[in-house]
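Journal club side-thread
Mid-discussion, someone asked how the predicted structure for our own chain would compare to the paper's figures. Pasting it here so we can look after the session.
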Amino acid sequence: MQNFRKFLLPALFLGFLFIGLIAFMQSKPSSKNARVYTTVKQFSPYTLEKRFGGLEIINKEDPEFKEKPNNMTLFKEFERLEREWGKKHLKLSDGKLLIMDNNGTTVHTLKLQTKDEVEFVHQYYGI
């Protein structure tokens, strides 16, 4: 019984540290290609806005749309909304990424320069 008490405090400390690291890794946003993501983000209607209790997701086109996920799921929810938007408004054609508006007309064309950029578009936006 004495040996059990001796290791109880370090075991609890390591257990809480392990659980905290797992929670941190799950809430971390996925990595993105900087050039492609920043260009597409300019046309995406979703943005993060600071509020008193943390961050909220708003839509620039719809003032009624506001989502207030908890801090653990904020980035995952934001990525889900961006991916849904990307599937409807992005098109890959001959090494070019076409960014379209709600009517389907091309607003911007981005020439993808490397294979990593093409893989990012496939992986992140699912197109």
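Post-session note: The chain has a mean pLDDT of 88.
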